[in-house]
Design a protein that fits this description.
69% helix; mainly alpha; 8 helices; 152 residues; single chain
């Protein structure tokens, strides 16, 4: 469970990278055909932009520039890669989106969190030090904390 995230964008990123590495790069045609990250990559950009606008302009958050840059890159990269590869197809995109979202909601139920709690109650790290502090806590469900575990 340590690799699963409480943030839906991380789930969408995971599906994209499964498709990219196993389907596109390694040529697994089953994965490349039946997993389509197109809608996921679009929602990834939209959800990230809306949530960041909310955090910065409504909640008044001020992120460290390097942390903000990393977040922007990781959320935009899947969509940019799909455009670059000319993999803009809609077949199976809605099914991939729905299945991924349903599994995410089931996971939230398993860890006993709501979408409201994840996005509007739980603390959002604004600096690398805050991220490190959150990573030191058990069951934080933030995938980047895996790196912190190995870098200690």
């Amino acid at each position: 469970m340590i690799f699963l995230s409480k943030y839906i964008c991380n789930w969408y990123q995971l599906i994209f990278y499964i498709w990219f590495f196993l389907g596109y790069y390694l040529g697994n045609q089953t994965i490349k055909t039946y997993i389509n990250p197109y809608y996921i990559s679009i929602l990834l950009v939209i959800f990230y932009a809306i949530y960041d606008i909310y955090l910065i302009f409504i909640r008044g958050y001020q992120f460290e520039y390097s942390l903000q840059f990393l977040k922007i890159v990781t959320h935009l990269l899947p969509f940019v890669i799909l455009i670059y590869l000319k993999e803009i197809k809609i077949k199976y995109a809605m099914k991939t989106l729905i299945v991924t979202t349903v599994f995410y909601l089931l996971f939230l139920g398993y860890i006993q969190k709501s979408i409201y709690q994840v996005y509007f109650v739980d603390p959002v790290p604004q600096t690398w030090n805050e991220l490190k502090e959150i990573c030191s806590k058990k069951n934080n469900y933030i995938p980047i904390c895996i790196l912190d575990m190995y870098l200690r």
